[in-house]
Amino acid sequence: MRLDVSDLHVRFRTRSGPVHAVNGASFAVDSGEIVGLVGESGCGKSVTARSIIRLEDPGEITGGSIEFGGTDLTSADDRTLQRLRGRELAMVFQDPETTLNPTYTVGEQIAEALRVRRDPDDQPFLRELLAGVRSRVGSKRTRKRVLELLREVGIPRPEERIDDYPHQFSGGMRQRVMLAIALARRPSLLIADEPTTALDTTTQAAILERLATLNDEYGMGLLLISHDLDVVSQLCDRIVVMYDGVVVESGPTRELLSRPAHPYTKALLGCLPGRSEPGETLPTVGGSPPDGSPPPAGCVFADRCPFAREGCREGDQPALELEGERTVRCDVSEARGADLEAMREATIADVAEGPDAGGRKAAVAVDGGVQADSSTAPTPGPSGSTVDRPVLELEGVTKSFRTTDAVLDRILGTDERLTAVDDVSLELRAGETLGLVGESGCGKSTLARVIAGLESPTAGTVRLDGEAVGDVDSRRDDQLADVGVVFQNPGTSLNPKRTVGESLAEPLLEAGWGERRRNERVEELLSLVELPPEFADRYPRQLSGGQLQRVAIARALAVSPAVLVLDEPTAALDVSVQATVLNLLARLQAELDLAYLFVSHDLEVVRHVADRVATMYLGRLLEVGPASQVLSEPAHPYTAALLEAIPDGEATAGGAGLAGEPPSPTDPPSGCAFHPRCPMADDDCATSEPAWETVGDASSRCHYADDFADEHDEN
Questions:
Q1: What are the sequence ranges of the domains in the chain?
Q2: Are 705 and 622 in contact (CB under 8 A)?
Q3: What does pTM read for this prediction?
Q4: pLDDT tens-digit series, residues 228-272
């Protein structure tokens, strides 16, 4: 069935006035076609998607039409919408953790979708709740179909996982469960809203491959919403670029990405870290994104466009037809013909002249790569030997968690544990950024929590400025102040009932600062992260995603730490905001001589910011070394697999990814932890644990590190 969205307008009523979220969007999705919908946060992508399936409440469709299979969804009655949502329309939301019901097993929730397809008017959960019974997977036939769906979306050992609850699955596995629920209806159109956000590269590659396969097998249309342009370029047939609720450009993927015509599309592409040299100031999109106010009379992008003329602000901009089945809403020929690289260079110059100018790392060429200048960030080799003392040292750090009841363990004489971090040793120096990468569940966040003192190590030692420390309760005030933490989602880490100023003042109050001193420091912190003083009186809900992340960074810097732990700080940000935040972090590091532990799934971002990289798998480090070497000439098959899984920016399939799933931490394999998934593994790998081997300036925990590095270099 074909989807046609024509001149769609959606508005929200708020106490402060109407918010205009979609302002005349038009596009189509044919049967069997994959269309990517891209743009900055707040441009109307998700509102458009939710309006298609009529879930946007209290959003009001004030104009336009949404035709699906000949039915206008904007005027359809509830019964028709219920039938279509049960059988023809399905949506996969961004965060499965908040979408899946934590009190029902994944099998029960997939079975519910099967029942709804058979009878869209059926409400099994409500009916069974009234009857006082819990929903179950049901008949053998239903259970068999649920198992088939779990296999289709790539859930390993579905017979063992069908009765598990959502909290027993990793983020990637929960996203696959959401996909299984959507596919249970055999939809004609699947809408996927940021389905790979915050997933590691191998899980992301697996999800994208599964979506492409299912699209091909079912012949369904797919509308993919994403701020990740590389993901969209890998999967989609066509791309639709949206700004301020208006489609400003659309066309076949390859043509649009290689020859973007609209200045906004060019600006988004220029922000990608992979298009800039490591450590270089990233281009950003100047000005402020739309805020939901009534759209201007002329071009919606005029206030941020370097090519804008007076005529651009007068009258509607027509959608021009270009060669290659492309359309663009811009009639300034100089803008359409501008060279992308020239625009990037001009934007970089603008950023460099602004507040971020002092934050760029000086870059010097070394053996064809790029590293940070030694005057701003000392870059130790794999041995960690430099003349200055590390601000952070980890020596044989292990963290395990009990998986059974402590009382029963004492009675039965057992002690079953899950080892999340296993014998990790690392060093971090002032002014240095260490990128920590690996799949979900490999132990990265647990290690970050141990460093921050939120968890106590089961074994090993954490040292700050040469002195051993424990968890938060055992650290002195000055040791607590040494480590700041920035979490992935500032919306959940900031108290919604406190103003920005109160959140920033909280750690200062805990440290015993007086009121006058606290107020002065709050104003100073806001200035550090380039926010005006009046933001101190705002609440988190009044800030954009990028502004929230700036506040989170300011809060982490409140008591002047030496080390900043950054746990996926840009995962949920669109490319333009991401570039701004990365430029800010670079400036702060240069000004304050901070050491960064940068935990991320995005290897292109890590390549751009990191001096050194550590690859983690099943709680262990497998490779450590300079970013310029590890991310271009890896000496471990696991690092190579992560790199191969990065979307390649082409409109074809990306890397081959990584076969299989990580072993359970409760039952780790013998020998090399990676051998069950390694293409080079032999009998020695299965029985003997490899020692650290030096390859160039890096270290690799692989029996065949030298051979693999040579082979990878030849390829």
A1: 99-184, 255-361, 369-591, 615-714
A2: no
A3: 0.84
A4: 888 899 899 999 999 999 999 999 999 999 999 999 999 999 999
